[in-house]
Amino acid sequence: MVKDSDWATMRTRRDLFPVEFIARYEKFIPDFDEFLEAMLTPLPRVFRVNTIKAAPEEVLPLIADLNPEPLSYLPGAYQVQDGAGLGRRLIHFLGLIY
């Protein structure tokens, strides 16, 4: 739930979306301000190893500088804290990760 002290911040966040979007979806999305907050929250940077082309043991050393952490709920998937440019690396271009 959004506190009164957060209203100014949320008001600014509302301004990031088209007026038509706010008018349409605010009517039927409960706790709309939390919905907007969720939309503005950055997604985690995750990738999967393409095991058709390589084993994780072969791929992970190539991106050890990103300190990939395995995801407990999805075998073969990893999360990195700073994955900026992950899609521009050669291992992505070669299809070793996606």
UniProtKB/TrEMBL annotation:
Residues 17-98 form the Ribosomal RNA small subunit methyltransferase F N-terminal domain. Pfam families: Methyltr_RsmF_N. This is Ribosomal RNA small subunit methyltransferase F N-terminal domain-containing protein.
